[in-house]
Design brief:
Elements: H1 6-26, H2 28-31, H3 33-36, H4 44-54, H5 66-79, H6 83-95, H7 97-102, H8 112-124, H9 137-143, H10 163-176, H11 181-189, H12 212-224, H13 228-241, H14 258-270, H15 274-286, H16 312-323, E1 343-344, E2 355-356, H17 466-494
Antiparallel strand pairs: 1-2
InterPro entries: Cobalamin_Transport (IPR051588), LPXTG_anchor (IPR019931), TAT_signal (IPR006311), Terpenoid_cyclase/PrenylTrfase (IPR008930)
Transmembrane segments: 469-487
Signal peptide: 1-30
Length: 495
């Protein structure tokens, strides 16, 4: 039996040791991940407002989408920043008010949800709802009030009004002191037996299906007019639907998303359910692109993950008031600072960092396409043909849906081939992720499926600088082990 020669033993041993030492050294950043992590956004609501303001086409509108532009104005006002941008966007809404109210239907056509949202924006921005772009929004809404207390649409396409239409009308008219008692009573009467509120306003107790979005809107409207007793059961319902991670899905079967969570957080905060609201806001921050993301994407709030894709602009617009802790009935743009707030990512220790200002105003309006359609949710209220269903493909938070047909209880939107997907549109066309279609004026169509931001940068805050190092360490360790095994086999052959 001959001894193993030192020359056959040492290279393998050294390589194995080097691999082990490299593995230990390269996993040190993981142990110190908390210390090396980028700083948190100092003001999530203001950061979201800065990003959203930078997505506006020509600094005035979201790719021609009235409902999304109105959502952004409300968000900017809630953040207390970007007052000048909000003024310009409000001017654009006033100039195009007639188109939004009629949806291109001409004289006699009234889209109640659109009129209500514009009236709310006018009040928040201290404009006159009685003369907004030449439109008397207050009179228009009151003219669509039925004897039952319900606000309805008028036009050849039929009545597409729903819970969003009703809630927005109550919120808007409360601002001017013109809200009729019958409208509030009707809203309260639509509550389902389980305590939540449905999207559809048809009177059919057997098909009264509560959902998070409609309940969040109804609660905010009821609390704004002081109907606390009617809101309490719905607040209990919302708390019962909150997931362990703090988020909310549209219904019990759907995953948490930003639009549903934001509306729930606003309602819970207004109703004094502070712990539930805090947990929901924490979930919203978890899907916000932070300082670890690409500079151009920082502040954006993704729909289900921290990615600034085509769903992010609408999600961000609706998340801002929730991040600011303000319900729709509380937002006031009077004291907003004129400019956006730079996104400060300077580490707390004062070392070199990055500060991101407002992106160029002429860039892509994420989620808005060339004709004004956008993916995601809006909030001005209509279901196609007034069909009942707790759920329809292509619903929007201005209530518009594509077909009004009852489907699977979700209003998360639809794709262009009719399958359900995340996000709806503000003009009644199907939304959902898509990568096709032309773009004009810097507006994007649909969503990107690769997770890239508006400038093509990947906004993935879930990655860590320690991961590549750990992977390299693992390779070195495997190499060392392999060399060690080879050396042992040689020893056996030598003996």
């Amino acid at each position: 039996m001959s001894p193993t020669s030192p020359t056959s033993r040492r290279p393998a041993a050294r390589l194995a040791l080097a691999g082990a030492l490299m593995a230990g050294a390269m996993t040190l950043p993981a142990a110190n991940a908390a210390a090396d992590a980028p700083p948190e956004l100092r003001d999530p609501a203001a950061a979201a407002a800065t990003w959203a303001a930078g997505q506006l086409t020509e600094g005035t509108h979201a790719g021609g989408d009235h409902g999304l532009t109105a959502d952004i104005v409300l968000g900017l006002a809630a953040s207390g920043t970007a007052g000048d941008t909000a003024d310009r966007a409000t001017d654009w809404l006033a100039e195009n008010a007639a188109d939004y109210i009629t949806r291109g239907g001409g004289a006699g056509t009234v889209f109640a949800g659109g009129a209500a949202k514009l009236a709310l924006v006018a009040a928040v921005e201290h404009r006159d709802p009685g003369d907004f772009g030449g439109q008397d929004l207050t009179a228009t809404l009151l003219g669509r009030l039925q004897d039952t207390g319900r606000f309805t649409d008028a036009g050849t396409t039929g009545d597409m009004s729903n819970q969003f239409s009703q809630s927005l009308a109550v919120l808007a008219l409360e601002r001017t002191g013109d809200v009729p008692d019958s409208a509030v009573d009707f809203l309260a009467s639509t509550r389902c037996a389980d305590g939540g509120y449905p999207l559809s306003l048809r009177r059919n107790p057997d098909r009264c299906t509560s959902d998070t979005d409609s309940t969040g809107m109804a609660v905010q409207a009821l609390l704004a007019v002081g109907s606390t007793a009617d809101a309490e059961p719905a607040l209990d319902w919302l708390e019962g639907r909150q997931r362990e991670d703090g988020g909310f899905g549209y219904d019990a079967a759907s995953a948490p998303n930003t639009n549903s969570t934001a509306l729930a957080v606003q309602a819970l905060a207004a109703g004094g359910r502070e712990e539930a609201a805090r947990r929901g806001a924490t979930w919203l921050r978890s899907v916000q692109v932070g300082c670890a993301g690409a500079a151009a994407d920082r502040g954006a709030v993704g729909y289900t993950e921290p990615v600034a894709n085509g769903l992010a602009l609408r999600a961000t617009a609706q998340a801002i008031p929730a991040l600011a802790g303000q319900a729709l009935g509380e937002i006031d743009g009077a004291s907003s600072a004129p400019d956006t707030e730079p996104i400060d990512c300077t580490p707390d220790d004062g070392s070199a960092g990055a500060t991101t200002g407002q992106p160029g105003a002429g860039g892509a309006a994420n989620g808005a396409d060339a004709d004004g359609a956008a993916n995601g949710d809006t909030s001005d209220g209509a279901t196609a043909n007034g069909a009942d269903a707790g759920a329809t493909s292509g619903t929007t938070t201005d209530g518009a849906t594509t077909d009004g047909a009852a489907t699977d209880g979700t209003t998360d939107g639809g794709t262009t081939d009719g399958t359900t997907a995340t996000g709806g549109t503000s003009d009644g066309t199907t939304g959902g992720p898509t990568t096709t279609g032309p773009t004009t004026s810097g507006a994007t169509t649909g969503t990107t499926t690769s997770g890239t931001g508006p400038d093509g940068n990947l906004a993935d805050t879930g990655s860590s600088s320690a991961r590549p190092l750990m992977a390299a360490a693992a390779l070195f360790l495997l190499a060392g082990c392999a060399a060690y095994l080879i050396a042992r086999r040689r020893r056996r052959r030598d003996t």
